[in-house]
């Protein structure tokens, strides 16, 4: 089953938010999904400890040996396995990238994020070349305006296209609902529209991004 790694050397780029939004959306639609939380701060494991009824399975894997064993087991049992990686390069990250069917690189529309995303791309390519393997990846813009893209976002997008760096057509917008998932420890369907501004729009954003992800991993499975 597809292994989807979420990686970026920069903290605060939206790795855990991206992982939680995609994983819970898939699980709420009936897919069997596991997140391996490899971040030492354990943000998604902390979310799972709350009151959400979402069937998402969360397992901690902060060392190389437990990661390999747990990844192999969850791949046999689940339809999707997400790996929320710590920003620091490590042997665990190396193993996750090697085993990934797709690597998502979340970035905000800032020069610093774009530079570190380029480093992540080089790391992915170097890892693939070490094993004579192509590791698919996609850049994902996070915390973007839901209205009109900023000039900086357009400029960075033009750079990505000029460098033939693949990216998601759908961005993960700046929405209070995505932060509220962690605060209330609930998924998007469980949050109360009366308590969270823009919740219907956040749910639609999550659905469209998840749909694009499914199409991507399905195409790669057929190609493989």
UniProtKB/TrEMBL annotation:
It holds the Pfam family VirC1. It comes from the Bacteria. This is Chromosome partitioning protein ParA. It comes from Shinella yambaruensis. The lineage of its organism: Bacteria, Pseudomonadati, Pseudomonadota, Alphaproteobacteria, Hyphomicrobiales.
């Amino acid at each position: 089953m597809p292994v989807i790694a979420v990686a970026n050397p920069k903290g605060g780029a939206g790795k855990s938010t991206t992982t939680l939004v995609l994983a819970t959306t898939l699980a709420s639609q009936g897919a069997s999904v596991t997140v391996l939380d490899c971040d030492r701060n354990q943000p998604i494991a902390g979310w799972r400890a709350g009151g959400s009824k979402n069937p998402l399975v969360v397992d901690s894997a902060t060392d190389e040996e437990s990661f390999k064993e747990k990844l192999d087991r969850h791949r046999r049992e689940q339809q999707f396995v997400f790996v929320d990686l710590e920003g620091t390069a490590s042997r665990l990250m190396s193993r996750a990238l090697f085993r990934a069917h797709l690597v998502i690189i979340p970035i905000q529309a800032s020069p610093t994020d774009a530079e570190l995303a380029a480093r992540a791309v080089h790391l992915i390519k170097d890892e693939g070349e070490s094993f004579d393997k192509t590791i698919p990846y996609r850049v994902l813009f996070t915390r973007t305006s839901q209205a009109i893209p900023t000039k900086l976002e357009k400029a960075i997008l033009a750079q990505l296209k000029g460098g033939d760096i693949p990216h998601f057509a759908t961005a993960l917008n700046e929405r209070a609902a995505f932060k509220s998932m962690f605060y209330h420890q609930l998924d998007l369907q469980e949050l109360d529209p009366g308590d969270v501004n823009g919740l219907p729009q956040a749910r639609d954003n999550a659905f469209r991004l998840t749909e694009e992800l499914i199409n991507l991993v399905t195409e790669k499975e057929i190609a493989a």
